[in-house]
Structures
1.
Amino acid sequence: MNPIVKAFFDEATNTVSYVVRDPTGAACAIIDSVLDFDHAAARTDTASADEIISYIRANDLRCEWILESHVHADHLSAAPYLQDHLGGKIGIGANITLVQDTFGKVFNEGTDFQRDGSQFDALFKEGDTIMIGQLRGEVLHTPGHTPACLTYVIGDAAFVGDTLFMPDFGTARCDFPGGSSEALYWSIQKILALPDETRIFVGHDYKAPGRDDYAWETTVAEQKALNVHIGEGRPLEDFTTMRDARDATLGMPRLILPSLQVNMRAGQMPEPDEEGDVFLKLPVNKL
């Protein structure tokens, strides 16, 4: 069976979230949700998540999974808010523990912050399967952008997170702690080994030069032939040289500091103080 896919685009962070539906029933999963965040005011909003909730309720769907492709550095996850309203289990890659260990130190979280992935309901590794009603999904471990990146292959659809972008925009950066352009290359080869007709759904779109509209769906065949960074069988050394040089020119994402603190906690804010106030940290000269 092949899923019914509904995309939700957040222009503020260029993020695409997805609701993936069992075509024979009411079960669904949410992939890579967004909690809106006003960086200047440090204020959250749930408009993007509420749009997903409205869609699921309007179609009488049942949320079974709230899936993260990785610990996002460019937007906050709305997973706990969605779980409170819709149910479902929150899942991410088992290597979340590596990310938690790295950024637990960056943010000086101390021993109260658990680095075992226990904030999530499920930790996935290569070859694990998930069921969305009668719809079967398989987990691919696709590190490189981060050490915990996953691709969810559900029927004829692959949800690749930040591993690949649209063919005219290329591939993800690899310069965050734990990233690797060589690991990304081999992860992409794993994705490109899927059948040519496999639909690929990307995690972001930035409208490549010359393109007027946002886009987020392509195919394995199109990526192999047309991807500007990895297409036409580009060899490993050429790719890593290009990727590393390009990454050296990039600034940090605008929301990286709040995003990492929240997303490594499965979308939860840090524990409030004795007065109930929540604070996020700004580590100086750490990234």
2.
Amino acid sequence: MLTPKARGPLSAAVLEALATAPDRIATPSPESAEDAAIALWALYELHYRGFDGVDDALEWHPGLLGVRRELEIDLEDRLRSRYVPHAWEGDLAEALFGYVAEHDGASLARHVQSTATEEQVLDLFRVRSIYHLKEADPTSWVIPRLPTGPKAALVELQFDEYGGGDPNRLHSHLWALGMDALGLRADYGAYVDDAPLEILEQNNVMSLFGLHRRLRGAALGHLAAFEMTSSLPSRRMAQGLERLGMAPAMIEYYTEHVEADAVHEQLAARTICGALVGAEPALADDVFLGAFSCLDLEDRFARRQLAEWGAA
């Protein structure tokens, strides 16, 4: 993957450092939220697939890690400032289902189901590909940080995400097949320069939660909210693509998620989050922080995209 385009002086300095690998890195303050977000995204990608022409050893470069930490502090502070701690009682899974059900955000899937044009859908897929081409990977960082029960349950869920051992059923691969069938680029990170702030932040938050052991509760709360809000929207997306006569391969991606995520939401809420909080009660609030962040960031992106389409 090529490095992304800079969006300001901070990201320009980070990308220059990736190219030159200096011992010390002087970075200016970000001039915008997008400048900070693309810089953080690039630094996180060193832990995934890296970049063409960038030394893999830079994954653990102390100077780059220092820059990443400052950006992470700012991102986490903003997430926590938006979140209102949630008082709950009784069964954690039931409380989590109720919390997610109370959220009534904007729906891109509903727009695609009934109204969107083909070009709007293609625009959506371009920026969604930043996540879908790595899909389950941020959550996999959490596996070794869990006690026995939640660990086994998360591996079970991830096994489905990774195609049950069949590389042709890997969810990220199904997405790539759909992109290719639509005439879009299916290579990893191909459309990052088209991604708005909200998409970058969605991806950065998943990496933030996944890469920090202390945020394992937030990572799993995010996963649960994601799975709880996936099955019905996936059905709507499939119906919208059928309405437009779009590629069967991409329709298959969504139909795969209609049934799979209906099962995954139960697994994520009960056998993963519920069991985690049972073993580590202090992580309960972070579970709700993660769920809130998932819902809030998707709502922010949906509202932006619908406004851009004149559909808000």
3.
Amino acid sequence: MSPPNSPRVQAFFDEATNTVSYVVMDPNSKACAIVDSVLDFDYASGHTDTRSADAIVAYVKAHGLDVDWLLESHVHADHLSAAPYLQQQVGGKIGIGDQITVVQDTFGKVFNAGTEFQRDGSQFDRLFKEGDRFEIGGLSGRVMHTPGHTPACLTYVIEDAAFVGDTMFMPDFGTARCDFPGGSAENLYKSIQKILTLPDATRIFVGHDYKAPGREEFAWETTVAEQRALNVHVGAGKSIEDFVSMRNARDASLGMPRLIVPSIQVNMRAGKMPAPEDDGNVYLKVPVNRLGGPK
């Protein structure tokens, strides 16, 4: 039986990017938060679409919800955030980890963003640090800084639910890559161990699912106990040495995510596009030989 203040969670799965977005609801009020939203993007045409975000908007409006927060677990490299669009449609404050400034500094240089691109996190409404607390109606949330995949990754612990972003996936799929600039397999292992100190029954909601071999359905909810016992990369007491060796070898075989170039440029700006150029149009840059080549 769930605790009386256990949040209600509605997932929205975007199969094009294997991303899971969440509406997290206070069971005793109309307050909610939206975690890791998706703006649809066709790379070949450069065309954006709001189908995924509109499904969330429709859900929020159909249930008469009040959006307190638009939470980002990190600067995603595999999809664009719809946070600004959702903010226009249903409100809410956009939050991310305060180490976003490290990511902005790194990728501001990669994309030669220029001095007009502020690297102080000011594009976001709230910069969270380890231990910060926030409310969703009567729900109490707290922030865990869980770097490794990126320097700015956060886990949002909301009562008995933890939203871990890309830190780890379902137990049969393991953990996130650590080879982006600022990533660290050692830090990821330590972050996961911190998450696994939460109570066994804590519900873990992952940011992606890629349907591990042998599994027929997509899945995104597990528990601390299941992760501790069964996670194929860190479960059953695997050592940091074994994890780092495995993770580094695995990452060396991976190509870059399909949408990394547009995603990072947009997401480091809190989901906003770069400013229009002199002709009134918006452009995204492709840095040549800066983000690794094919494996």
